[in-house]
Amino acid sequence: MKPKPTVEDLIGIEYAKLGFFREVQEKIAELNATNLELSRKQRHIQAILDSITDIMAVLSPRLRISSVNRAFHDVYQEAHPEGKTCHEIFRHADKPCSDCPALKAFETNQVFRETVIYPVDGKNRHFEITASPLKNERGQPCHILLLKRDVTLEKEYQAKYHQAERMATVGVLAAGVAHEINNPLTAILGFAEGLKRRIPRLPEDTNRELLEDFSEYVAIILKECGRCQEIVQGLLTFSREGSSEFSRVSLNKLVGDTIKLLKNHLKHHVRDLIRFDLDSGLPCVRGDESQLKQVILNLLFNAFDATQEKGFITLRTFVNQGDRVCLSVEDTGCGIPAHHLNKLFEPFFTTKPVGKGVGIGLSTCYNIVRKHHGEIFVCSHEGVGSTFHVILPREKHP
Amino acid sequence: MEVRKFSIPEIIFGRGSLQYAGLCARRLGAEKVLLVSDRGLEEAGWVDRVVEILDHEKLHWIYYGDIISNPRDFQIDKGVGFYHRHKADVIIGLGGGSPMDAAKGIALVASNGGRIQDYEGANRIHQPLPPMIFIPSTAGSGSDISQFAIITDVERRVKMSIISRTLVPNISIIDPLLLQTKSRKLIVAAAIDALCHAIESYVSTIASPFTEIQSLKAMQLIMKNLKRATETRDLNSLEQLSAASTAAGMAFSNAGLGVEHAIAHSLGGIFDTLHGLVHPVLLPPVMRFNLPACAQKMAQVGEILLGKKRRGAQATALGGIEKLEEFCDTMGVQTRLRDIVNEHAKLPDMCRMAVNDACLLTNPRQATWEDLLQICEEAW
Q: Which residue, B178, B200, B216, sits at the end of a domain?
């Protein structure tokens, strides 16, 4: 029940005609508060967007950039990409790319993913692009959110992993094959030597021509068996699992020992083609001396092949990034064709003529260096020369 | 004297002042005006005239004319829907008490929400109302000045009084030219309503010097000009009646009314009696009832009605009441309650309802429902 009006109500001294002043004041205060809250939220959202490490761009239906995040500026030089088209900024093209994921996302109103490789500042970059439609209240796409993740490094790691896996598989295979062949080979060699020993004991009246043939054939069998043994030995080295003992090794001393070892095998003038640039203050590394010698030998033999006794070979040691010790073998030889570069360390890849090598030299190097927690890679220009780098971690101070 | 208050709207008064309606609306921030009026004003051409003025001011407008006398709650609801649908802003009320009270109701519910019933009583409005401009077409209701709105609750058959200073319009434009199209009967009814406002507010318990002078002035002007205005339709006289009605409005809006209006509202609620017809019937018996409580003031009223003093206050007062009855007779209006109400049996219920009316609060003499019934019997 409402209270009945009183005389005081009729006089109404406390009540005035209501105006809008207070309402306007309250509205203004409310709007100010909302405004502050909105800008706080906006800063928060911007901070979230900026902390996303993928490159982010919002595109209009005509592929014009309406905003980007901080990661964009880390990768691209363009200070004000807003209003420019994405193909202009990302690909330096004046029309949309044929496989544009943003256009597909607009058409299908669905998230679209794609992997592309294109150069940024002269270097090829591998990008994973996600184009997702930003929908309006009717569910229609009004903008596209483009996320570009630079997966160049991941892809590199992935490739290295695949290679390592392949090496391991081939290693097991090679070891098996080597063992299986070794036994019959020993038998062949043994019996061939037996034959050789018995030839003189053949009767005097044996056909002389036949005798000479026999001697020749047996010699060939023995020679080829020797070659087989070398190959088998190589395969066993390649696949040898970590039974090796690591000790303190000076790469400079190792280079010296290896050259001494080679001296007797090299012609005089070839020896003069080798130059040295050794860092006298080079720290030691921990490793298996004979295996590392094998690496240097293999690299040197390759360099000899590349220079054909006509160029120079430089053996260099130096410290890289403080905690890494480098050995490089540089030659001024024929160089390696670009399309061979990524297969170089694969087992049984060879450019040498049949009978001159089975293609396990560099893959053996690769395995050894990896066992030493190091890296091996090559820089090469066709017709100018190649440099193989072996990088090993320096010995840790006890 | 206790603390009193006197508040009135801005008043623009004079012949042809109607032309400022558009300008006033624009000054109040109008872009789309809701014009509230009724059939009578449409037929007399005044609605068209106001529309013309708004058009001239290049204001958009919408028109709501579905108002009858004793405006109903559902008419308010309809008007509010109309107001919101068309996104109107300033409200112009054109007409007698009904369209203006309806305009107040629409403004109130449009801005404060709910139903008009929620605001019955005093000072229940908490949000500002849209700006209001009122153009009275009768010299009587005083709704263009007052803080009251009277709306009929159809279901309960009650005339609800809604009282708030916020119901005082922003601007009242009083143009006596509008009276020229009114019938003689309407002019008389309105003038006696105004006279009743003047007398009841004068003897009110919360009358102040500011209201008393308006009450007295209104009585003088009505007694002096009503006859001439009805006989000759002389514009000067009509203008004086407008001034009288405005003065009476200022008085009763601030001083309140009394028993007579309490009964009149109740009659309107139950019998749908035209407000203007009630006063010639009820005013004399009510004055007689109140006389013992305010003999001196009644004598001053009597002096104005009679045009002279009699020996003693009592005699002057009674003489005035007799003169008033005689005056109403000569005006040719009905003076008996039985002429305007046909169900005598409903009078007790009607009186029980009337004692709850806010107008009773300021009556100089305490009154029970039996007192009110006695007054009605006297008027029957």
A: B178
